[in-house]
Write a structure and sequence with these properties.
This protein is an alpha/beta fold and about 270 residues long. It folds into two domains: about 5-160, no CATH class; about 175-265, no CATH class. About 35% of the residues lie in helices and about 20% in strands. Strand 10 and strand 11 form a beta hairpin. Helix 4 packs antiparallel against helix 5. The two termini are about 35 Å apart.
Length: about 270
């Protein structure tokens, strides 16, 4: 499912006529497309202002930049349809950044997405912007994208926006490998593994864990790369094992961990 961003209009106030601004925008655009962000919303007036600004940067072919921006920028700021809940959230907040009204940040906050900031100032190169909400007299945090690094470092949050699709392994249960260490309750772990390996989302058992006698939870740790640490907390020693699942990111791995806990936690 494609996601919308909202343009941070404050990032265009300081118009730096440097080719690096456009080059950075292009790199971010390609990275955002990889992560299902296909549209950046702006007002009609702001869309024209952005175009006028970027085509006046030396070395930028006018036709190229206009074609690119028309494919990426969509006006108006608001979406074609807005739910009553979202509209209520929008009108009940009044966001300011550095004492300047921030409409792009407000829309991003309303839809729980991010703003896109041009790299016209180092202050925009940050993963989130803190805005002041005059309505509630408190600060709110809004996700921000200015450089590829901002996208990479927010990967876990970006993945959480995508539709969850768990992939089943093609490895048959009898071909799933697990070699626990000899000194860590090998027989008990192998018996448990013989049940665990029948799960469609488990690829292999990696190794056994050191004893965790004080651990009282089935899932000890979840990793971005699909690895899950499991503890048999009902055993005196707290026997455990590390498994490789089909999870491709933290969100998928967490969902698999929850399924395993429901089925195998005694």
């Amino acid at each position: 499912m494609n996601q919308d961003l909202f343009f941070n209009e404050l990032s265009i106030e300081n118009k730096t006529y440097s080719f690096s601004v456009v080059q950075n925008l292009k790199e971010c655009y390609l990275k955002l497309k990889e992560n299902n962000f296909s549209v950046c919303r702006v007002s009609h007036e702001l869309k024209q202002e952005i175009m006028d600004y970027l085509i006046n940067i030396p070395g930028i072919p006018k036709r190229t930049i206009t074609s690119f921006l028309y494919s990426f920028l969509a006006s108006p700021f608001e979406k074609d349809s807005i739910s009553e809940e979202d509209f209520g959230k929008f009108i009940n907040h009044d966001l300011y950044f550095e004492n300047k009204k921030a409409i792009g940040l407000l829309w991003a906050y309303t839809y729980e997405t991010a703003v896109l900031s041009l790299f016209t100032d180092e202050k925009w190169n940050i993963d989130s912007l803190i805005a002041f909400d005059k309505t509630s007299d408190s600060n709110v945090q809004v996700h921000n994208v200015c450089t590829i690094q901002n996208i990479t470092s927010q990967k876990q949050w970006i993945d959480s926006l995508k539709e969850l699709e768990l992939i089943k392994t093609t490895v048959l249960p009898e071909n799933k490998l697990f070699h626990p260490r000899e000194d860590h309750g090998k027989d008990i772990l192998l018996n448990f593994w013989n049940k665990l390996k029948k799960n469609d989302y488990i690829i292999s058992g990696i190794n056994s864990l050191p004893f965790n006698p004080k651990c009282r939870t089935f899932i000890k740790e979840i990793n971005n790369d699909g690895k899950i640490e499991i503890v048999l907390h009902w055993t005196d020693q707290g026997l455990g094992l590390v498994i490789q699942t089909t999870g491709r990111n933290y969100r998928e791995t967490k969902a698999i961990a929850e399924l395993l806990e429901q089925e195998y936690d005694c």
